[in-house]
Amino acid sequence: MKERLVIFDTTLRDGEQSPGASMTKEEKIRVARQLERMKVDVIEAGFAAASPGDFDAIHAIAETIKESTVCSLARANENDIRRAGEAIRPAAKGRIHTFIATSPIHMEKKLRMTPDQVVEQAVKAIGWAREYTDDVEFSAEDAGRSELDFLCRIFEAVIKAGATTINVPDTVGYNLPGQFAETIRQLVARVPGADKVVWSVHCHNDLGLAVANSLAAVLVGARQVECTINGLGERAGNASLEEVVMAVKTRADIFPVETGIDTTQIVPASKLVSQITGYPVQPNKAVVGANAFAHESGIHQDGVLKHRETYEIMRAEDVGWTQNKLVLGKHSGRNAFKTRLAELGIELAGDEALNAAFARFKELADKKHEIFDEDLQALVSDETVTPEDEHYKLVYSRVCSETGETPQAAVTLTVGGAERKASARGSGPVDATFQAIESVAASGSELLLYSVNAITTGTDAQGEVTVRLSRGGRIVNGNGADTDIVIASAKAYLNALNKLYSSGEKLNPQGDV
């Protein structure tokens, strides 16, 4: 029987550190539910000490998730660890993940601590964490550039102190697969007590090697991989969960391990995270890209038709590509709607929210006769992503766009409950709409990203728009969906403005594993 490879998902923590990828508490809970449905072993829900919002989200996820372990990151100081301990307290299974930097450059320039002080602080951190849980993970930040002898020393000390998982991060994505594998092999061989802990890796993708480094480590003894949906993460991202899992499954002849992941939930998870964060998946992305199982070449098409394995090493249905089938129509009832939302892991706050969402569903069904799971996700996002008390709200929009004429837009908004009207011209209908909104909002923000994606196929498909705004160092995403792309754009822009207006600013954690 093969050994278990623990899948540790950090989409909600490291993934959220991507610029503009901050999620609301409700969005984090939706993602966490999908991760649990996918049978992820450990969900790193956030960094409890980073902000009150992060603490609340971790606490809510700990109350919600029953099967997966819920984890909070914490620096190796008492305040961080106690905040993490309180945040995970409601969890059926909770973990504290504490870290401190171990590379010479980090210890000298960032921590300004001697190696002896770093070891002492790490041991103290394990002791504080064990007051809350027996499941304690220790990470040596920037292990990829740390001295091997010092790593052996600090890992031995934290194992004696009670750490149960030892994580070796390639924090800046500097290592090559052979080099990283040799580091893991030596650590497993040299550290006293190595057989008493789970060895973990957390690789960044700065050189495009995060997955390769992670898999190389698994071959020499690592039994936990830290990864994210779609490889989301700051800079070039993290190891991609879907690629790691499917590599292990597809090459079972090579890997002595297996995961417990329900791979049919991979594509739904990918689409949900992409929708919420506003980070689109490139079409040629492995496993979850739109073209991952598409065959354009006539030779390839002929081969696949004759025998699938000629050009396909995985089945599309095994990763969830068949799950966007028609599920509901205009004659579907409220109970069928509610049941399908539950199957998708979507829970609305009470009957009032359900009734509002159902009314929106009926409205959409009149415009678009075939309603897919992706449509439901987008429809409900308009309910859950938007702040409860919208400062800016779209009441009316009219756009005039003619060949040879400058497009014009007129909008009516409510601003703090008061109705305001404005009109503007622009280079296109969307630009004119944004100009009209800005003439009212006067937000002073900078538009960093405008992205449009068709949620499903067909000319009646909903358009899903992502708008990324920046103001005063704060970056937010706004999302909107509608069969009218200009209306979807206005919704997305106002959603971003509402996030900028809200006071729930997320503080960036100090440090990265």
Q: What do you see in this structure?
A:
By secondary structure, the chain is an alpha/beta fold. 39% of the residues lie in helices and 20% in strands. An eight-stranded parallel β-barrel has the order 2-3-4-5-6-7-8-9, surrounded by nine helices. Strands 11-12-13 form a three-stranded antiparallel beta sheet. Helix 5 packs parallel to helix 6 (148-161) and helix 7 runs parallel beside helix 8 (210-219). The radius of gyration is 24 Å and the shape is globular. 49% of the residues are buried.
Give the key terms.
alpha/beta, 513 residues, 3-stranded antiparallel β-sheet, single chain, 20% strand, 8-stranded parallel barrel, LeuA_allosteric_dom_sf
Strand order of the largest sheet: 2-3-4-5-6-7-8-9
Are there runs of 5+ residues with pLDDT below 50, and where?
Answer: 504-510
N- to C-terminal distance: 32 Å
The major β-sheet equals: 8 strands, parallel, barrel
Helical residues, percent: 25-40%
Average pLDDT figure: 88
Radius of gyration: 24 Å
Structural class by SSE content: alpha/beta
**Tell me, what's the shape?**
globular
Number of alpha- plus pi-helical segments: 16
Oligomer: single chain
Kindly estimate the percentage of residues that lie in beta strands according to DSSP.
Answer: 15-25%
Number of strands: 16
